[in-house]
Predict the 3D structure of the following.
Amino acid sequence: MRFHTGEVGLILKSFIYRFSGKSPMAKLSPEEKEIIYLRLEKQKIEREKAAIVLNKSLALYIIFMIVGVVGFVFDYLSAAILNVLIIAGIAILIIGTLPYFVITSREEKLIEHLLDKLKGGKK
């Protein structure tokens, strides 16, 4: 009878935990599992919304830059308007990026908290 390397590790872990009396992770009720799952899904939805905003702001930034450069090269825009377009494009890019970073950092903290809770650490 041959075991795969991963199976041997799993067998050894279960053997150690069975005879030491310690549980590797906290036991969760089905309701707690569902709550954790729903919280993670909610975070995914928020991240997807922020990613959409980020994509739209990046598209607006690129459009502003293209319009500004093409308009300036063909003398449709003055230097002042070109500067306004560049500053507005950068502002749009910054405003679109901030929600994504805030949401991803919040999601990372939530996942770390849930992992600590599941491992039996701080609650």
Remarks:
- Residues 64 and 88 are 8 Å apart (CA to CA).
- The mean pLDDT is 83.
- Residues 27-118 form one domain.
